[in-house]
Amino acid sequence: MPGDIEEEMNEWSTDFECNHSNLNTPAQIDAAIDFLQGGIITRIISKGARRRKYRNRPEWWTDEVERFRKVYLRKKDLFYRNRHREYSNHLHSEMTAAKVKFVNKLQTTRKKAWDKFVENDLKVNPWGVVYKVAAGKFHEAGVLSCFTRDDDTITLTQEETMRHILHALLPDDDPEINNYTQRQEQRDYIGIVPRNTRGDRFQGEELDAIINALSTNKAPGVDGIKGNVVKLAHKWVGPSLLKIYNACWRLGYFPTAWKTGRLVILLKDPTQDFGNLKNYRPIVLLPAYGKILEKLIKHALAQAIIPMHAEAQHQRSVRQRLVAGAPEKSQEKRGAPRTGGVNQELSDGPKSTLHAR
User: Fold this and answer.
1) Hey, is 65 helix, strand or coil?
2) pLDDT digits (tens, 9 = 90+) for 254-301
3) Beta-carbon contacts of residue 22 (< 8 Å; ≥ 6 apart)
4) Contacts of 62 (CB under 8 A, 6+ apart)
5) Are 316 and 328 in contact (CB under 8 A)?
6) 211-214 long-range CB contacts below 8 Å, 24 or more apart?
7) Is the full-model pTM beyond 0.85?
């Protein structure tokens, strides 16, 4: 990491403490998030070394490999353009030596890339790229097709086609057509008032654990901040980020910037009909910092909900789902009577009248 980036990030951290020391309103939280994202983009992402992309070349094709290739092609061109017989042997030997160096460099780079792939991807996730290649789950992009609207008109431009797919897959929610139950739920949701809490709910150790376990292969959201950048910047933005998260919990506010995603429409199967809307699947890429806040809230809710369940109820399955999100079958024998339930006496309230079924 260049020293100028570390110096700039230390300066950014000082500016954050001076300008955003108090986060007591949602507007102040939004301003702090803008300052956070702007600092990472201008001081880290913009200064990162961007490797040149070569068209139709694999990911491991580096600038050094390209340089060896150009040297070999230059020597080869000199040999075939030579018109003097006395220089032929010398030019041929130089061309051969340049070719050997290029091939050796190519093989070395490929081996390093393969070893890195085996160590970081294949060993960690055997159901990742190798499984997808073997199962044929990677497909080439197809040609965007025209669609027929409800009024029998046809989409003639790419913009019209994308708008038609977007409105068909993600129709707008019209409050005027909601039924009574939906209106009641919407009114109750709007009327929710967050409960004021004292102190900081999230701790630095908890945030560090989530950051360390963050995946670096996920596509970024609208902010363009990837997982590897989040890990890299955490050294300087960690305390400021923790202050923002605690302010969000204290005010019961989830920032709008972290709820805004980047919509991507994927083609399910290129061998099927491109004009069938069911052959498309929309996904929304959310910012990484918003996902981290969701994990912190999920862990806090799990700590509050787990004590309400009986130890014998579903044994470890309930705790496993709440904490890790991974389903686990109950170890209870089929037909055996279940003991305990939700009707336990809580520490600060009467017994519930509900019973486990």
Assistant:
1) helix
2) 999 999 999 888 888 777 878 888 888 889 999 999 999 999 999 999
3) 28
4) 51, 109
5) yes
6) 211/238, 211/292, 214/288, 214/292
7) no
